[in-house]
Every structure is written in structure tokens, then in C-alpha cells.
Amino acid sequence: MKQDATRNAAYTVDCEDYVHVVEFNPFESGDSGNLIAYGGSNYVVIGLCTFQEEEADIEGIQYKTLRTFHHGVRVDGIAWSPETKLDSLPPVIKFCTSAADMKIRLFTSDLQDKNEYKVLEGHSDFINDLVFHPKEGHEIASVSDDHTCRIWNLEGKQTAHFLLHSPGMSVCWHPEEAFKLMVAEKNGTIRFYDLMAQQAILSLQSEQTPLMSAHWCLKNTFKVGAVAGNDWIIWDITRSSYPQETRPVHTDRAHLFRWSAISENLFATTGYPGKMTSQFQIHHLGHSQPILTGSVAVGSGLSWHRTLPLCAVGGDHKLLFWVTEI
């Protein structure tokens, strides 16, 4: 008997297509609203949303599309640059995408006349994750099914290249550990690379495979979480290279893992995007059961709000938002 409440999304925003990926901007952008990006079959939309949890005079969600970028090919991943600023003149919107054609595109816009992108080529298979350097935003790291992790400068030149033992599934740069990079592989190994020495300095091991997604906890640099097989897995890197805690969570295989930006005990997982629906869950390390379970029509993408216990998931012609109490 499950004790968790199965809940519908608190808020939804209609989209013109199936949403493949969604990302809240994790950086302070100089505006009271929250920048959000989502990608479909051939476009990226940049929007601004504000929730009633933040502003009392708003009922539910206030959402506005700022710009739609034509992409020409399916969007698989989106990463925000810390250089994005809405309060500068002109404003700066900067993000990159990974796409089904195995290329990275770096977009820069002032939301008016300047809308340009640069193509970064080098991966020979699908790109599973990408991230900007969290401080200056002067580099991008990406991992791929081609068994490599690559670091690029903003001109599109590769500045580092790590060979992996299996497909790279997740890559994380921590704002407090800017000279280290975390790379998670499908075979269950998570490695931390020293970017000055360009070599691995620490590795973690999952007992389950395939590892599909891993994330470095923003609120505690010693915590790493992942999903592999049907389970979520948590490590404390000060204690052991083997997991501290493991729990079966999605019967249809787990797909994504994301720590909340505001608590080291709160995280979300999704099941595999199914033919009909996939499951979305929010977990708290102090609770044995998920504290929230939702169902999404073919859900994909998962992102936490920067300051609220609120998650976004992409759905069929919809963005869905769930709110939980900590």
C-alpha cells in the first residue's frame, strides 16, 4: 500500500509540440521572473514564468514566451549560460543545445535583432548531456554515446577530451568546485576529473546498470545521486565509493535524476518516457516513500526551480509543474 499522494500537476503551460527537454535557468538573471527553456522537434522556446508561491498578486502561474528559436532538428538537451542577463542593456540570452544530428549549437540573442548561433562539431554519436562552466560560462562540457567527454571553448574549439569506458550519460560542473568535472557513464561508474591535471581523481561505483542519469548535489558537494536500472542511488563521497542508500523506484526503469536547488535532501526522478505515460516522483531522504508521485503523458525532461521546491517536466504539448512542501 503506497502512502504517497498521486497528484496532478499544480500548473500547466500549453505548447505547440511534444516537449523533449525542459530547463529552468539555474543562474540569477536579474529579473524577478524565472527563465525557462524547452525544446521540441525543431525549435527552442525561451519563456519567463512567475508562480503564486513567489508573488502574492499572481494566481497560479504567469507565463510569457520571450522568443522561439528555429532549430531544424530535434532538441535533445539544453544548458543555460551564467552570462544570461535580463537586466543588462541590451539583455543577453545565452544557451546551448544538443541535437539529434550529434551537434551542439550555441545560441546568443538580445531578444531583438541579434539572434545567432554557432555549431560545435566533433561528437560521432548522440550527445546525452551538456553543461556550461558555472562561473564564467567560458566553456561547455558534453558527454556522448561515442564514449567521450569533451570540453569546448565558445569559439567551438575542443580544449579537453576524456576517453570513457562506456557511453557518457551525465556531466556536472559544480559552482563551488569549478576545477572539477563529474562524468557519469552507462556502465555505472561516476568519475571526477581534475581539469588542471586533466585526469580522473575519484570514482564512484553503482551496483546496478544501466546508469541513465546522475547529478551532483548543489547544496552539498559530497553528495551524488543517480538512477540505474529501477533504482535511485545516493553516494556520500567522503565515506565510500559504493552507495550509501539505494531504493527501487520505477518499475519501468528509471530515466532521470535531479537534486533540488534548495535542499540536500530533496530530489526528483522520472520513469522511462513510455508509450502512454511515465511516472514522476519527488523524494526526501527523511521519508521512506516518495513524497509526491505524478503521472505525465509521455514525460521527458526534468528541471528544478532555482528558489522554490517546484519541478518542471515536459509532456505532450504541455509543460507541467509540480510543487511540494519541504
Automatic annotation (TrEMBL):
Q: InterPro entries given for it? A: NUP37 (IPR037626), WD40/YVTN_repeat-like_dom_sf (IPR015943), WD40_repeat_CS (IPR019775), WD40_repeat_dom_sf (IPR036322), WD40_rpt (IPR001680)
Signal peptide (UniProt feature, chain positions): none
The UniProt entry, under Pfam families, shows: WD40
Q: Does the keyword Repeat apply?
A: yes
Task: State the Gene3D superfamilies in the record.
Answer: YVTN repeat-like/Quinoprotein amine dehydrogenase
Start and stop residues of the WD repeats: 120-162
Supply the PROSITE patterns for this chain.
WD_REPEATS_1 (PS00678), WD_REPEATS_2 (PS50082), WD_REPEATS_REGION (PS50294)
Q: Which organism is it from?
A: Microtus ochrogaster
Q: Which gene encodes it?
A: Nup37
Instruction: Provide this UniProt record's keywords sorted from A to Z.
Output: Repeat, WD repeat
Q: Does the keyword Repeat apply?
A: yes
Q: Which domain of life is it from?
A: Eukaryota
- Its protein name is Nucleoporin Nup37
